[in-house]
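pasting input
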Amino acid sequence: MKEYFVVDVKPFNKKIPARKGEDILSTLIKGKIFITSSCGGKGVCGRCKIKILKGDFYSEPTGKLSDEEKRNNIYLACRTTILGNIEIKILPETIIPEKVEEKLFEKGEEFEHIKYNVKEFFSFKPLIKKVFLRLPRPDFKDNLSDYERLIRELKKFENKEFNIDIWNLRKLPNILRTSFWEITVSYVDEGKISEIINIEPGDTSRKNYGIAVDVGTTTISASLIDLNKGERIKTEITFNKQASFGDDIISRIVFAEKKDGLEKLHHVVTETINELILNLSQKHGISLNDITSVVISGNMTMVHLLLKINPSFLRKEPYIPVANIFPLFKCAEVGIRINPNGILSIIPGGFPYVGGDITSGIIVSGIYKEEELSLFVDIGTNGEIVIGNKDFLTCCAASAGPCFEGSGVKNGVRAVKGAIEKVKIENGNVYYETIGNEKPVGICGSGYIELLSELFRNGIINRNGVFVIENEKIKEVDGIKEFLIYEDKNEKIVITQADIENLIRAKGAIYSAISTILKTLGIDKNDIKKFYIAGGFGSHLNIEKAIEIGLFPDLPIDRFKFLGNTSLLGAEGYLLSDEFRNLSKEIIKKLTYIDLSRSPIYMEEYLKALFIPHTDL
Amino acid sequence: MKEYFVVDVKPFNKKIPARKGEDILSTLIKGKIFITSSCGGKGVCGRCKIKILKGDFYSEPTGKLSDEEKRNNIYLACRTTILGNIEIKILPETIIPEKVEEKLFEKGEEFEHIKYNVKEFFSFKPLIKKVFLRLPRPDFKDNLSDYERLIRELKKFENKEFNIDIWNLRKLPNILRTSFWEITVSYVDEGKISEIINIEPGDTSRKNYGIAVDVGTTTISASLIDLNKGERIKTEITFNKQASFGDDIISRIVFAEKKDGLEKLHHVVTETINELILNLSQKHGISLNDITSVVISGNMTMVHLLLKINPSFLRKEPYIPVANIFPLFKCAEVGIRINPNGILSIIPGGFPYVGGDITSGIIVSGIYKEEELSLFVDIGTNGEIVIGNKDFLTCCAASAGPCFEGSGVKNGVRAVKGAIEKVKIENGNVYYETIGNEKPVGICGSGYIELLSELFRNGIINRNGVFVIENEKIKEVDGIKEFLIYEDKNEKIVITQADIENLIRAKGAIYSAISTILKTLGIDKNDIKKFYIAGGFGSHLNIEKAIEIGLFPDLPIDRFKFLGNTSLLGAEGYLLSDEFRNLSKEIIKKLTYIDLSRSPIYMEEYLKALFIPHTDL
């Protein structure tokens, strides 16, 4: 017989039932408490720390905990199994925050994103069209059936074939008569056959909304779009709760291969998207029923997990995704809650590690149509690089890890209010600026880049990133050195030796990917006339410092341009423009791919890039 | 608080829970015991008789029960409400039989049906195509996605667009690899975009089955079809359990308008179809999974009820169906159990009372392409008539009631073994033949027609159908005269005065519909060179007797031709031939309709036809 116990989780006072022998990380996920776990529960990252207050348990010995932590009853959740009722405490630094950044885009002018308007660049034709129809009332002479009567009228707007599903057909007779033959029809305005999505009584044509989603490995952003006006109403961002199952796509795929793993990953990502959609719709007084489409821009792994499709073959040679161009789905089939007949469209992706998010980036940046050579880099947990112009497009991908997104580093945060974004070290004093000039809450990606550069300039770390001097700001905690940036009564903000190693690996991965693609194609870096930067950094990033630490190649500053979240912008474009949708299919045909893992020079380039700035001077 | 009781139903010993105040008819349906109820529970037909053995109940006074019945504790189930635990007995004559006629078509040669082979008349191209594919295994050079790889190969068979749903896409990666890239794909071989229905590992292409269904108001027939060979494996017939909710389509529509009425009618018809399909598949060792399509031929009301679409507007002016040409549905969405991705296709129907079953009849009879004038009549619970040739087609519909199908008459049965199909009365003696020369079980439609003719010829009934002589074969039971045909220790087979009235109304409805359409079009009956008879009669029917009683107009015998169940044959044709499918859409455009209820002459014709044979001599 199975024995069941209760895990009492402080400070939430949430009681979660658990089987005897179950590990605490699984129990927490079951109870919808998401804590960081870079390795997805394999016991190797040492990040899923919890404090056990009392109870029966068994914890495997691990080298991932310091003596101090051990004294304080800190354990790894994934390595600790439950043997009786137990009381645990979640450590604040491990919790994956929810909806932290709803106000991010109120900063407006700081993000190019908000200025970007699809209508300025591409023909305006939303994915879903909504038309108000006054059908002639049937009589003995004009006795066409309800459906054929509807189609006859629809064809006046669009002379193409239509299709209807049983749910709408079932509604049709009553809606037509209770609305006195005045109805509003939503249909997919694409493809050879237009699917009817929704039929409503009366004129609701002005309520036509869609959702554009960027599903990132670490963060998920969604924009609520007015499809009639072609305008973004609001964007919200949150963390991808899948982070509890591993930091990067490979650990997610490994987790998906476990029993129920795919189901769990699918569930948390759809729930995260549903929360964003619900939030956006409620705040703007828009009914979920009036949202009839969702466009997803994301890397292939995220797309597979969202669709609940086995991603295993993405990490096995020869790395094959289930599809490059996906058919239209119904949101309901995928577990996304908008109008019950609403559709889900996925931006086509060219390669297993260069997905629809990069198709978005190529189109938004415009590099596919330029005469001059451009380079596009999207820095997220994965870093993707595209080089090309109107004649060719070549791409590659590298795993940067989530530290530039504020995850996987001790005091990392995203670019929220209070995030340290600028740092200056002079005469041993640390000066910083936070977003919104608020009390510091942590360090964001651009802050880390400045910090790294300043630590190096001031001789505090050497070219390998190792602390080489001693002063009162540098302390050793549990055998790991850390540098103090901010401190008050309750908390302190530091950068640790481990953080620095992490950051150097991340910047090294991006830099070496760029140098490998350039060398492989025989292109001199100076021939790159435009260098587009997409991803979470935004315009906070100090380019000079990024060059100084060896994240980007040394090019004139005026060639760099920030684009913001081009994945999200792409989803917006796909939702609003048929030209954008057509382009996305053309782009992936044109794109070629360099597999760094099979490149004869990449490992060498990477090792050279693990210095500040690098050895490629 | 609601009170619940138990209804103990003998002889099945089935105990059904019931709310206090619930009527017994509803309780029986809930317990899946289906008894006849021509009026659908309105208390006017007096057919849903049950015997109450003990318990608390209240039964409304009714004139529908004889004194003898009242003495025997017989009550109407629809008028009796439950006040406590109760024990009842179902009378054998009220039960709607299940799967009575699985062996019907073993009689083979007697049914033209069995000789009809779609392939002889129409191009052979089944609705669902199943192809075995050996996909080239992907490598670093040929690294197309799973789905695009599948499509590339499929296009070698059929160069058209394909679509896949999420369920098949989810299966795809694992199936491809566990089958070593050898798979079988089923797809809809029709329309601009071919929907992929199923993907299976290995070569299963020889297992490709479909189901053709004739959904009649009183009976439902289904054929299991081998789509590769284009051959019928077996046909089964059963009663439509919707008969518990009313005999004819109008009472069904009225029932559908009640609370949960549509849901109930939809449920019993899908269950009936599911039983037929399960039966056919099990007996022939065919997995439900290998059945990927169902084609439905039926009148508009049956189609609406099957699809769970409000049929109310079919009986309200100007009589508008939800559609004439229906889109493809998924069986699962409609509650029909075959392969989970299997499709449901409905034969297009021209008018609210001349549906897809008649489209089938027009094509199967071939009248749409003949030079000479033909008349087609389908005699079921509804009688539909089509007159025309290659230049025009005109139709009308009349309600005949179910008596020719063995329902709504005291000892009526369908054309099963033991059914009395031939009758001769000479010198007061009754001679009969039964199907299969078995012990008599009742009288089938063709038997009734002979019987009526013989009773009239022998002066036992007059032109009005009233018993006019007295002899030992005629008895009065509860004030209604009946004529004895067969008797043994336990049972007797009779025709009652009420039966005769019923039969005369039925034959009068058909005859007057024919005469009205002829008069309206100004056609002399002798110009009809072929007279096609479809419906349950089959070749058992004695044409001369049918003319004698005034069912059919007086034409030379050699002009009459039996076609059998053309509705079912049409469903088979639709499943097997694209030419048939295309024709069905053309036919309904060509067809015109005469609404008898709005015809200035129909009522007069009908009244003239309520005699034997009629007054139109």
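fyi Residues 99-114 of chain A have pLDDT under 50 and may be disordered.
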